[in-house]
Amino acid sequence: MTEQLKNHILKFVTPPDSELQSFLNLMEFEDVKNKEYLLKEGRYCKYQYFILEGCLRSFFINKKGVEKVVNFGIEDWWFTNVDSFTNQTLSALNIQAAEDSKVLKISKSKLDYILQNSLELNRYFRSILEKVRIADQRRIQFMFNLSGEELYTTFNDYYPDFVQRVPQYMLASYLGFTPEFLSKIRNKKKQ
Amino acid sequence: MTEQLKNHILKFVTPPDSELQSFLNLMEFEDVKNKEYLLKEGRYCKYQYFILEGCLRSFFINKKGVEKVVNFGIEDWWFTNVDSFTNQTLSALNIQAAEDSKVLKISKSKLDYILQNSLELNRYFRSILEKVRIADQRRIQFMFNLSGEELYTTFNDYYPDFVQRVPQYMLASYLGFTPEFLSKIRNKKKQ
DNA sequence: CGGTCTCTTGACGGAGTTCAAAGCTAGTGG
DNA sequence: CCACTAGCTTTGAACTCCGTCAAGAGACCG
Lengths: 191, 191
Known about the structure:
The structure is a homodimer. Chain A has helices at about 5-10, 15-25, 80-85, 110-115, 120-145, 150-160, 170-175, 180-190, and strands at about 30, 35-40, 45-55, 55-60, 65-75, 80, 95, 100-105.
């Protein structure tokens, strides 16, 4: 079950076997059905999740009562609400399964323990954060630079198979516009 | 000169003195005047910068020839183009001083060397990345949730003194709209 | 004092939203 | 196996926020 995470780690760093094993032993398995919640707004985010299969999303409800999708995560991605998890503050976000999913999770105290001792696992999580930061920065750049239609086609080109996996209204929300508008973009392209 | 960086590090971690010193010894000082470039689009981003005083910004020029500000950095912040720096790819961004500034810089190879050996400095840079990730996530949430006017007033409330430090057109660009529109927001508030 | 850089103002246009209604689709139970 | 429902997507008309363009007014710096 932790074999998949082990392989992921070994793509980035090569920790001593003992360190790696004691880390993997701290991970707990969890099976979540589509639409189940791993975190609800107003609670503390206790875990960081490694997605084995399926898809998670984080979102909040804005003043008008509309869901806003902040992030998606799929296989081999780490997923959490960084803010609530690292600062131990109340979460402004929900985390929910967007498909039936299998995840590994680890609590903050256990992760902290590991990161106080393992050089290589620090390097691993630092690398993960670097990648995520690069993704966030690209996303910000795209949001500034592209029209709604361009955002959609760009996203479609980058992740052609992912687009099939989630409802259109979630994708629209993630890209920053309404489902109605996305529908119009899609139908314009057909002609 | 490196005292300020040392203090910053000690707020997060407590590395052995030898590690800390050898790290600080690798930092190089640079004095930049307002509007000087530390990185130009199409080049490699060779350095990560720690800002001692002043203000840096990163930006790109979009298809229409308009400057888009991606980030600002001020005293006690690390600043770089993560994408170009970590992946050693050509930079899509410029980094420019937005005020007369003093910075410390370190090259990728030197930083990598440090991070292969120092547990505590790995923890430091991981913490920095966590903070930065939290900021990016908040920014994405704001951009989705708030109108232009709300973005401005929110930013104004968070960083009231910073708003005075940069030209309005840079701030408008950073917030994702035009200087004309910002001007209209500001004048509406006066009445 | 002259020039460049920055900010303001107004008229117009367009990308995307809102609201409401209807059309699909898949799952559920009888 | 069909009927029903709930959730998702489509469509269209009116509307709004913000961009574009152009011209002018300040402000700063050599």
